[in-house]
Amino acid sequence: MAERWHDKTAAEVEELTGSDIQNGLSPEIARERLDKNGRNDVFPIEHRSMTGYMADFSTNGLSLLLVLVSLISIFFKEYLLAISAVILIGVSYFVTFMAYYSSRILLERAARNSLPNAKVIRGGKLITVKQDEIVTGDVIQLSAGDIVPCDARIVSVNHLYIVETGITDGVGSIEKQSDFVEYRNVPPHMCFNMAWASTIVTKGSGRAIACEVGKNTLVRRTGKNKPAAEYHKLAIFDTLRKIGGKMSLFYIASAFIISLVGLMPFFGGNSLVTLLVALSLGAAGLSEFLMLFGYIIVACGLFDSLSRKKQTEKGSLIKNADRLDTLKKVDTVIIPPEALYSKRGMSLEKAYVSGTLYDASQSDFADNCLRLLKYAVVTTGLYGQNKLASASEDSGEAYTFEEDAILRAAFESGVYNTSLESEYPLIEFRRKNDYNRLDTALVRFNGDNTVLLRGEVNEVLSYCTHYYENGRIFRLGPIERSKIEVEATQLMRQAYRVVAVASKNSRFNSLTKLRDSQNDLIFEGFIALIEPILPGVSQTVARLRNAKMNVVLFCDDVSEKDYQIARAIGIVSSRENVITGEKLRELDLDESGSPDKNIMKYTMFEGMSVSDKELAIKKIKENGSTVAFLGNKLNEITLLKEADIGMTECLKLTGTNEENLEYNGCEALRFVSDAVVTMVDMDSSGGLNSVADVIGSAKNINNNIDRMLRYLISAQSIRAVIVLWSLLIGKFILSPLAILALGLVFDFFAALIMAFKKPTKRILRQKDRDISQKSIIKTAKDCIIKGALCGGFVLVISYLLVLFKLMPMTSFNASVFVSCVTMSASLMMLTLNDSRGVTSELRINRIQFFYLIAVLLFVGACVLFKPFTAVVTESLFVSRYIFLSALLSSVAAPIFSTLTLKFFGGKEFKKFSKKVKKRVKNAFVKEK
What is the rounded CA–CA span in Å between residue 483 and residue 525? Predict the structure, then answer.
């Protein structure tokens, strides 16, 4: 650390950094410092130059085969082959590199989007910027839920607490101060006026001046920082690299063997053509492109989950791609009630006053509910000139959605105005939290100290002894209590949030004795708030259930409304599926010491504290479940780490949100989580719907990589069979240029299209393919057999057309080539829509459509323009029946090969083979 910032006054820090505590840096100075000193890379992001990514194209010696094909062709004056090969090589390499480079840039951008936002004052305005854009001298606004973006000297505090665990030796939340510390060296955890980079603000607010950024921060110097994202560590990339290397060795060995065979006397000694065919066959295998294709598929899959409609981000964003392997295995999804309905769409619909239920649409609503509406506004503490600003500064959130609905209703009714401050001067206000059961306000009204409270109706009623009706106060007896409960329950069953308001005259002039202030209350009435249920959420629950995935609801309170919603959408079927936090703590291991299986029958947990939620997650994981937890509160940050996959909600998934700072989401939750989903919106996005999409995207990425591998192995096998047959008959059917065209053009684009395959509605039910070396080798056997059958079918069809004199022998080679082209398109469509060997959903996107059109145009050119075909088939005579051959091959061959594999792998064939083996064995024993 260049300076001991803790032992300097705020004015000295201001002078040393060239900052201004009130106005911060100007945008121009901040930009100059960022350009000069670089980014504040507290959380490094992997970045390489374009030349660095080019090195990935020379990972093995197979790329030399393409160069050899061109050089040998030039040496033997095969100029057409040489020129065509160079064009194919150049185009395929250029397109692959650009797609690969773009995918790596997208992954880098996703990593940068995962960086936490920071609130800074620049030019006298409070704005949000990415953490890596902070420069020395920036004035930072800190509030609960923020991640400190750099090492900063605190200059003002308002009950500011920061957790430094893992960064310094401090334990728990440390209260910070703005005064300077003694003029001596002190350990970091004793520097109470310093905020260290990557620590988390848990309470209060404050301002600080950025002192050290980037590599000079404490967390960087001690090596305790972690990268923002480590995509390169995804296991699938290492697997693809190894498989590509082994395939390259196999192709090189095959090329050597084929070249030796070509030298044999019975083959005619055409060693040049044999060598070129062998090299072309190996180069067309695209084995060294496997890892590059993998990056492209992952990048496309990650950004497919994030959609933008009318410049608004929707859906979800997978931040940590290295968690894809775990994400696709999730079988238990834990969500809060807020993931089922839209809080942003909350509105006040009804009010219960003096034994009567009023509708907000009635003309006399404001007159009849005037007292209740006023009291409801007072319980928010958000009235008067300065209260809204102070609430925003304290918590970073101006008000809750419930309070927003109350304020809007009061404003529309003419209740929320400037006279409230003079009529109900606020003495003290306490929000509901872990230590306070109700939102409570103490005001001065008619010369008395009056306590006004707001909370869930059943909880408020439990503390009430009287009720207000038509200007008088009565004793709250069982009959009156029952009437109120019946009215509230009926509304909760209709998915209303029922919020009660109560009052009490207090002898105290403060809320220090909070328990006393919240007992013996007068029930004033309740308001009913409607929260629109997320469209399509019932279908999402059904999809998850059909995929044998559990949907579990964690509720902080015991609420009839939440139960009714959970029952309506299918999360619970009866009260037997509901358990409270108190009952959960009573569950224990059985006598054998194995996990309690009863925990899995509960799909709704009520009255849950943070410790109860942590206990429930542990118990569910002990039963072998892979858990995804959606958390939206700062005190749930430990639960995101406890779950296998942590998710959080946010209004904006990427970038910053300068216009609505209060809705930017908790930065600590956003940074720690593995995925971010948007808050519930009324266009079917956000909440549980987006959580399901996140899991579906992870599964789809895995399946697309599997599809790509199976396609390439099958397509290469088709060409291998045709080359082997050529060796047997002593004449090559496919020319070297034809083989390169099939591999570097048609197979290349078909494999690339796999990256753009979007998940279908059935993706959650599809069985995941295990992409490991062992499983791929097992899968490769079926793909090789399937390709061999298709290749054999192509040859048979062409021979039959010649045999029945529908096509002359001179068109045989062209027929096989064109059939291989159409077979590529057929295999691509079959593979894209068949992740388990059976066609599930036929969906053709624009990229697939254009590819099919391109194939049809190419086939048409081959049939109509004879010289066009001669470039790759070396035949000037092309029969119109080539189209028939291509059609039969592309349609019948995949069906024939699939049915054949299904038969030989089916139960009936296994039974038949067992009987044959048994009879052969018995016959051998008798003979012996």
Answer: 12
Q: What is the pLDDT of residue 817?
A: 86
Structure confidence at residue 617 (pLDDT): 94
Gap between the Cα atoms of 647 and 665, Å rounded: 12
Enter the tokens of residue 40. Answer: 């504040």
Distances (CA, A) of 125 to 24, 122, 141, 718, 736: 8, 5, 11, 66, 67
In 3D space, the residue among 702, 629, 701, 627 whose CA is nearest the CA of residue 672 turns out to be: 629
* 121 DSSP β-pair partners: 126, 139
Record the pTM: 0.81
Angle (CA) 113 316 331, round 5°: 125
The identity of residue 500, as a single letter, is A
Query: Which distant-in-sequence residues (6+ apart) come within 8 Å of 913 by Cβ?
Result: none
Q: Which residues contact 561 (CB under 8 A, 6 or more apart)?
A: 491, 492, 493, 495, 496, 497, 498
Averaged pLDDT of the chain: 81
Dihedral of alpha carbons 398, 403, 405, 408, sign: negative
pLDDT score, position 435: 74
**347, β-bridge pairs:** 530
CA distances from 324 to 231, 259, 268 (A): 10, 43, 54
By three-state DSSP, how is residue 547 classified? coil
Which one has a higher pLDDT value, 845 or 133?
Answer: 133
H helices present in 173-289, as ranges: 218-221, 235-262, 271-283
Query: Which token pair is 559?
Result: 């609420």
**Over the range 595-621, which residues count as b (16 or more CB within 10 Å of their CB) and which as e?**
beeebbebbbbbbbebebbbbbbebbb
Dig out the tokens for 50 from the structure: 């374009």
How confident is the model over 438-447, as a mean pLDDT? Answer: 90
Q: What is the pLDDT of residues 881-901, one digit of tens each?
A: 777 777 777 777 777 776 776
Each residue of 816-860: pLDDT tens digit? 888 888 888 888 888 887 644 434 455 677 788 888 888 888 877
* Assigned token pair, 783: 């793909």
